[in-house]
Amino acid sequence: MSDRITARDLDGHPFLIKDMGWAATLERLAELEDKETRGKWIFGGYYHKCSKCYDYAPFTESGEEYLSDFCPNCGATMEG
Predict the structure, then answer these.
(1) Which residues are registered as beta bridge partners of 63?
(2) Which of 34, 35, 70, 80 gives the lowest tally of CB atoms within 10 Å of its CB?
(3) Contact (CB, 8 A) for 41 and 57
(4) pTM
(5) Domain extents in the chain
(6) pLDDT tens digits for 3-62?
């Protein structure tokens, strides 16, 4: 088992937590909270996709596409 503890930032880039120390880790997490990811729904053929994670927009129980104000897959705030 590896003793490395990693996380991913909002852009998907990995960074080490264990080797950073607690102060640096908390500082890095605060930076990530300040950085709000913005995206938009883009039409990808038949359905809309998130411009950040390229996952599809959610659907309602009736089967209709639901273009919410944020991506439920990556958390990006949708513009326009």
Answers:
(1) none
(2) 80
(3) yes
(4) 0.53
(5) 1-35, 37-80
(6) 555 556 556 656 555 555 666 767 766 666 555 678 899 998 889 999 988 899 988 889
